[in-house]
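Page 47, continued from p. 46.
Same chain as before, 107 aa.
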Amino acid sequence: MTSMQEIDLSSFCQSCGACCGYSQNWPRFSIESDEELAAIPEALVNDRQSGMRCEGDRCVALQGEIGKATACGIYAVRPEVCRTCMPGDAECAMARRKFGLPVIQSA
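Result:
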């Protein structure tokens, strides 16, 4: 009998970050409460107050090098759109393709 190891797909995020560099329109605010929005440092919010500030297409909260090693500087208070993008889903695949990274195949 072979034992199958479960792969923690979220570990892919720490070596990826593609979704955080895909589009300046991606890290937008949607269903966050006023309290949740207030927890995001003002310097990281765009001028329209509609989402995260970006440099080019890259969210300014993203730390590290896309495709190598990344982290979110505000992970605990990140917007809902960031929470719903899951490793291997359609949005993840689209972002990874932009950076020439292989698409994650979930079992």
